[in-house]
Write a structure and sequence with these properties.
Length: 436
């Protein structure tokens, strides 16, 4: 249905109570919700694959480029830092200029850079390419989370935001390594693998360009879903950082993400060494155990936000951190028992990634006006990526070198314990708990 109050990009005339644009019919809004969440989920899955596919291809790259394990850590850290910076800046930018102008170029950008990675001739070029990839993927993340939130009805918001982020774990940590290694066997060169993996991104970018509606086209529905005032949701409203910093949940989520990211990144980076060097697993068995990260993360991304729609964001987060800590304590006592290692790590991943989704999604987007959603999501993601993704793996490596590789699990437990303590002070924002 045509918007009769203002054209896209046009600031309405100031008045005391701006008239809301005509909302979409219920059926059309529901169909749009399903299509856009599916597209944004596939896009985030490609973000995960493009970001993490370098790990399973790294042994082949070492032979051609003369890289070391330290180089892999530096490459991962550079991407995380630039991802974090872009999340903060681009989240705010998408609140100002619209989702389409950020999301579509971001998907094209990180897909193009992924393809160009196959042409890398050395460490210097890899660092530049991964830094640029971090910028594009960091730009995609908060804008996609915000648009999922504003396109969802309250009863499905947590589930939709979990589904949209779940493919990051499934493709990036679960299926992605399998695809990468199988393609490597077929193509015989890691360079072509990067090129092929990049292709789906261009298709997603085109479909997003054709499908995505700017928030002002559905402003009336967005006001009803999030409960914001019409004046706050009007087209052209300028996000104010002071409103974000004044919101307690955003600041608490940022602190909790540091603890959660400390756990996730330290485990992902150093767990392979723990399994092979400390427990003595073979490379094949190590890969089996590590796949629990991807599959457990996929379940956590969907299950915990969906539960939080009914039970509330705060109690689900508290339970997730408590169960995650318990799982890691048990994990530390296990020997080379593959089924037990997989199962316990699966449970830990469900809790860690489910909590991550809640903290970057509904906990912050529901706490601020709709016009600030992407800015609010970008702040904790950005700081968490810079501190958690860029610094904690190096800190964990230092501790492992000084006190033994088994100490990394204690680092992860401490990170979750910090997040658990802070979660006690959250303000509940789930519509099912605040309605009325």
């Amino acid at each position: 249905m045509k918007n009769t109050t203002s054209r896209p990009g046009e600031r309405p005339m100031p008045e005391s109570a701006p008239e809301a644009p005509q909302p979409l019919a219920a059926g059309a809004a529901r169909r749009y919700e399903v299509r856009i969440v599916a597209l944004l989920a596939v896009g985030f899955g490609l973000v995960g694959m493009d970001r993490n596919i370098i790990a399973p291809l790294f042994p082949a790259m070492v032979e051609d480029l003369g890289l070391t394990y330290q180089d892999l850590g530096i490459i991962s850290g550079v991407l995380a830092i630039f991802w974090g910076l872009a999340s903060i800046v681009a989240g705010n930018l998408s609140d100002r200029i619209g989702r389409r102008k950020v999301l579509v170029p971001a998907v094209v950008g990180f897909s193009l850079v992924c393809g160009l990675t196959g042409a890398a001739s050395g460490m210097g070029m890899l660092l530049v390419l991964r830094a640029v990839m971090g910028l594009f993927e960091g730009a995609y993340t908060p804008a996609s989370i915000a648009h999922t939130s504003e396109s969802s009805t309250p009863s499905r918001r947590g589930f939709n935001m979990g589904l949209q982020q779940s493919l990051f774990a499934l493709l990036g940590l679960g299926v992605g390594p399998i695809i990468a290694t199988q393609l490597l066997d077929v193509l015989s060169s890691w360079r072509w693998v990067f090129s092929l993996v990049a292709l789906p991104g261009f298709v997603v970018a085109y479909l997003l360009y054709r499908t995505l509606r700017e928030p002002d086209h559905t402003a009336a529905a967005s006001q009803e879903r999030s409960g914001v005032r019409a004046a706050e949701a009007r087209v052209g409203a300028r996000p104010a950082w002071r409103e974000i910093f004044a919101e307690r949940n955003v600041l608490l989520a940022t602190a909790m993400l540091f603890g959660n990211f400390a756990c996730v990144f330290v485990m992902i980076t150093l767990m392979p060494s723990y399994l092979t060097d400390y427990l003595g697993l073979s490379a094949t068995n190590m890969g089996f155990v590590l796949s629990a990260f991807g599959f457990g993360g996929f379940v956590g991304y969907i299950a915990l936000p969906a539960l939080s729609d009914r039970l509330g964001r705060k109690p689900v987060l508290i339970a997730a951190f408590a169960i995650g800590i318990t799982a890691l304590i048990v994990f530390r006592t296990l020997g080379a028992n593959l089924p037990a290692l997989f199962l316990v790590l699966f449970v830990a991943a469900v809790c860690e990634f489910g909590a991550l989704c809640l903290l970057t999604g509904p906990v912050v987007t529901e706490a601020v006006p709709a016009a600030l959603a992407a800015s609010a999501a970008g702040l904790p993601i950005g700081i968490g990526e810079i501190a958690g993704g860029g610094l904690t793996p190096a800190i964990g490596g230092f501790i492992a070198q000084r006190f033994g590789i088994d100490s990394i699990i204690l680092v992860a437990i401490v990170g979750l314990a910090i997040s658990l303590t802070i979660s006690l002070f959250l303000r509940e924002t789930a519509p099912s708990k605040t309605r009325g």
